[in-house]
Each structure stands twice: as structure tokens, then as C-alpha cells.
């Protein structure tokens, strides 16, 4: 069954984790493209400011304070969206928080709390969105934000990686079941690489030095671009950055080699030895983190965008460009 999703300017989009980072950028971009937005997070003040900002610019927005780790709160987000706008057309499960620490040192309560947000929050949101789309019998989009670490296990963020693996498994299983019953639901899994958000400051850290991305870092707009594309065009997966796709592929084909690469690569690129840890002052594991910040405090090569995201949006054009480049290269070589 081919699903036809509404254009963005005709949609109501629910976005969890909307008070900062990817969720914040996505809400702003969606509103600018004409969508009504329902923004949800634990930070009431940030959400209200965001909703007012969107309304001041001529958009429509509703703020709902909620903890996605509590099923009743997620149900309340959906009820508020329907009460305000009559329906919702896309549900984005974006809320998340990480833990930096080894498998043996991270406490079980911390692990459970993180799973409440990263995994169970997605389960609750997915089920209520699917139920709504089925009941109205009109196509809708479910967008789940995964991670490269959901494709490939990692040291340092082992708990987060485990939760993202569970999220990926849930999303893929749900997609197949919905496809089997021909349900009117498009399910997209987003696979971001390193993204410049306050993710590091909000994380729970067991390290004495500040956690941060150090290396190639993409702007949150690239993830928002992928999300909004999936909201209007049925798409199974969207990888943010060729690096995320390439490393996932290598990990599948040569897992032992990737183990060694990750063991060498990850520790120095996740911890900044020049800064003391800001934890627990800014940790958002048990309380709302500070809001309305799109960017974090990472360091490295900051990309302005992702050509790979654009290639996934237009795969035929991308293939033609690669073929054309290959033919042109071949022609030049023949002349030499």
C-alpha cells in the first residue's frame, strides 16, 4: 500500500523533547513551513516561550508540559493536540537523554530512568500515534529518532547505546506489523551521527571531565530536515551524515574490526580533557534541563549541512549525479 501524507503546511505535528536541540529546531522549522505544532517537554517555561515565539511569527503552536517516561503524560499530549487542533498528522518521538559511563559503574536506577525516556517514551508515543491514525483511517507519519549508537554499540555511552538498540528494534518490528495489516501509518527511523545540541550538557556523566563531541559534528537543522521530509514522504530510514551510514555498514560487515575502531576512536572523541565536568548541575536525567538552546559546547569540524541527507531525499538525482561523475572521470582518463 502506497501512503500519501499531507504536505507540511496542512499538518499538525507533535514533537516531544521540543524545549532544546533537535526538537526545538524541528518545531521552529515546521512552523515556518506552515505546520501547526504541538511542543512537549518537561520544561514549562521554555515551551511556553517557544509557543509564543511561533504565534508571534504568525504560526500556530500549543505547549504541553509532559514527561514521556510516564505513559499518562504521553496520553495527555495526544489529548491536548486533538482538543486544540482536532487531530495530529505526524508524531515525532524525539525526547532523549544520555548517560556517559561504563556498563559496570552506571547505577541501575540511572539505567532504568534513562530507559523510561529513551525507550519507553518511544513505545508510549508510538502506540498512541498508531492508534490515532488507525481510528481516523487517514495516513499519518510516526518519526522515531534513533542514533548511530542504535546501529552500533559503543563504549562510554553504553547505556544510551543499549536503549537506542531497543528503540531501533521496536521501530522495525512495529513497521513490519503495520505493513502486514496495511495500516495507514508511515514509520520512519532517523539515524543521526554527532549533532551539535546541548545533549552533552544534559547528559548524566560519571566522568570528571566534561563530555562533548569532538570530531565531525552536524547541525541540528540536518536532523530536522530529515524529520520533516519523513513527515511528508513515506521513508523507512534517514541517516544524518554519510559517516553514520558508512560506519553502520562497516560494523555489520566487519563487526570485530569495528569493535577495535570504536575502542580506539570513541573515548578521546567523547570527553574533553580541558574542561571539568558540569555534572550534576546541568544533568537532565531526573529533572528538566535548561531550555531554548539549539547548540551545545562541542568542538571539532562543524559541518554546515549534510549532502547525504539531501541525496536520500532525491535518490534518483543522486544516482544520476554519481553515474555522471563516473562517466566524466572515465572520459578524462581516456584522454590522458
UniProtKB/TrEMBL annotation:
InterPro entries xref list: KR_dom, NAD(P)-bd_dom_sf, Sc_DH/Rdtase_CS, SDR_fam
Per the record's keyword annotation, is Membrane included, yes or no? no
Keyword check for Oxidoreductase: yes
Family from the record: Belongs to the short-chain dehydrogenases/reductases (SDR) family.
Protein name as annotated: Oxidoreductase YxnA
Q: Which PANTHER family match?
A: DEHYDROGENASE/REDUCTASE SDR FAMILY MEMBER 7B (PTHR44196), DEHYDROGENASE_REDUCTASE SDR FAMILY MEMBER 7B (PTHR44196:SF1)
Print the keywords alphabetically. Oxidoreductase
Q: What positions does the domain Ketoreductase occupy?
A: 11-198
State the CDD domains in the record: SDR_c3 (cd05360)
Q: Supply the source organism for this entry.
A: Hymenobacter cavernae
What NCBIfam families does the entry give? PRK07109.1 (NF005495)
Amino acid at each position: 500500500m502506497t501512503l500519501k501524507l499531507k504536505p507540511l503546511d496542512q499538518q499538525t505535528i507533535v514533537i516531544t523533547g521540543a524545549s532544546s536541540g533537535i526538537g526545538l529546531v524541528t518545531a521552529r522549522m515546521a512552523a515556518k513551513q506552515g505546520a501547526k505544532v504541538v511542543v512537549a517537554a518537561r520544561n514549562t517555561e521554555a515551551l511556553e516561550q517557544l509557543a509564543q515565539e511561533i504565534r508571534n511569527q504568525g504560526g500556530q503552536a500549543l505547549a504541553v508540559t509532559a514527561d514521556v517516561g510516564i505513559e499518562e503524560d504521553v496520553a495527555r499530549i495526544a489529548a491536548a493536540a486533538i482538543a486544540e487542533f482536532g487531530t495530529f498528522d505526524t508524531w515525532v518521538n524525539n525526547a532523549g537523554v544520555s548517560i556517559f559511563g561504563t556498563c559496570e559503574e552506571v547505577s541501575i536506577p540511572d539505567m532504568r530512568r534513562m530507559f523510561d525516556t529513551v525507550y519507553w517514551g518511544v513505545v508510549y508515543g508510538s502506540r498512541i500515534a498508531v492508534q490515532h491514525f488507525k481510528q481516523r483511517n487517514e495516513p499519518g507519519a510516526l518519526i522515531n529518532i534513533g542514533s548511530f549508537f542504535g546501529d552500533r554499540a559503543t563504549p562510554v555511552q553504553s547505556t544510551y547505546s543499549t536503549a537506542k538498540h531497543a528503540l531501533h528494534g521496536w521501530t522495525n518490528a512495529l513497521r513490519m506489523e503495520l505493513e502486514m495489516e496495511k495500516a495507514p501509518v508511515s514509520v520512519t527511523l532517523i539515524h543521526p551521527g554527532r549533532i551539535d545540541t546541548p545533549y552533552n550538557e544534559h547528559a548524566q556523566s560519571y566522568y570528571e571531565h566534561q563530555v562533548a563531541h569532538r570530531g565531525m559534528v552536524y547541525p541540528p537543522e540536518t536532523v530536522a530536515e530529515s524529520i520533516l521530509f519523513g513527515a511528508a514522504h513515506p521513508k523507512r530510514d534517514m541517516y544524518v551524515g554519510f559517516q553514520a551510514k558508512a560506519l553502520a555498514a562497516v560494523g555489520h560487515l566487519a563487526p570485530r574490526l569495528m569493535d577495535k575502531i570504536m575502542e580506539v576512536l570513541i573515548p578521546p572523541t567523547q570527553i574533553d580533557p580541558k574542561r571539568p565536568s558540569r555534572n550534576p548541575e546541568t544533568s537532565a536525567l531526573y529533572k528538566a534541563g535548561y531550555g531554548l538552546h539549539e547548540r551545545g559546547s562541542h568542538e571539532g569540524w562543524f559541518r554546515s549541512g549534510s549532502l547525504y541527507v539531501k541525496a536520500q531525499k532525491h535518490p534518483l538525482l543522486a544516482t544520476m549525479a554519481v553515474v555522471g561523475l563516473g562517466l566524466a572521470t572515465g572520459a578524462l582518463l581516456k584522454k590522458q
